[in-house]
Design brief:
Blueprint (H helix, E strand, L loop, with lengths): L2 E6 L2 E7 L4 E5 L6 E2 L10 E6 L2 E6 L6 E3 L2 E3 L1 E3 L5 E4 L2 E6 L27 H10 L4 E7 L2 E6 L4 E5 L4 E2 L10 E6 L2 E6 L6 E3 L2 E2 L2 E3 L5 E4 L2 E7 L1
Parallel strand pairs: 3-4, 14-15
Antiparallel strand pairs: 1-2, 1-11, 3-5, 5-6, 6-9, 7-8, 7-10, 10-11, 12-13, 12-22, 14-16, 16-17, 17-20, 18-19, 18-21, 21-22
């Protein structure tokens, strides 16, 4: 079974199993996955099962469908991909099963028939990134979650760094989280060990809430503090 988790910023709203050949996503109550926001079209996009793949398909939405910061018409989903619709996102998990399968409030009956509100995507991205001033990196140490607040202009990750990441061939500083006026950027220091975000190897990446960073088996999540 595969699932998506509907997020508003860093807050989870619902989970849905991808248990139909096509899961329609949008503001309309007729959709399989209802996203209650006027920046989302009534029938915004779909997730379609094609063979062994799940494909995100834009439905001609007014404000567009984005994956990895890129506007898409069709995109084959990979583990950890975030389908972004305005301020909402859907995180794809190809091996997950939803605990309640969408039982967390299908609200939005009042909005379903309203006209879609156009969203300035650049302004929205900047506003969301600015929330990085109160962001942290979460990781598990000794069986408990530890939050490391990103209070410095640069926070290092590695064997001898602000955030520990152990493993064979991991550098003393394997990556840096840099704070700018628009939010946080993750920059790899290169070497034999890859730095990945949501399953994709990166050299640099503008972080978004919920991004999962992995270095040599050390898993971290970028989230609100």
């Amino acid at each position: 079974m595969a699932k998506v988790t509907v997020m508003f910023g860093s807050s989870m709203e619902a989970e849905y199993n991808l248990d139909k050949p096509e899961m329609k996503i949008g503001r309309s109550m007729e959709c399989d996955i209802v996203v209650d926001n006027l920046g989302v079209s009534r029938h915004h996009c779909s997730i379609v099962k094609e063979g062994g793949n799940f494909v995100a398909v834009d439905g001609g939405s007014n404000n567009g469908t984005f994956v990895g910061g890129q506007k898409i018409n069709r995109h084959i989903l990979k583990a950890g991909d975030r389908i972004v619709l305005g301020k909402h996102s859907l995180v794809f998990d190809p091996a997950g099963t939803a605990a309640a399968n969408g039982a967390v409030k299908k609200k939005g009956a009042a909005m379903g028939g309203e006209m879609t509100m156009f969203v300035d995507q650049a302004a929205l991205a900047k506003a969301m990134a600015n929330d990085g001033k109160r962001m942290a990196i979460a990781l598990v140490q000794g069986g408990r979650e530890v939050l490391i607040n990103l209070t410095k202009d640069e926070t290092t990750i590695g064997k001898a760094a602000d955030i520990p990441a152990q493993g064979f061939l991991v550098k003393p500083v394997q990556a840096r989280v840099q704070r700018g006026s628009g939010g946080h950027k993750l920059v790899s220091a290169g070497g034999w060990r890859a730095v990945t975000v949501n399953g994709q190897k990166i050299s640099s990446h503008d972080l978004k809430p919920g991004d999962v960073i992995v270095i040599a088996g050390t898993k971290m999540t970028y989230r609100s503090a």
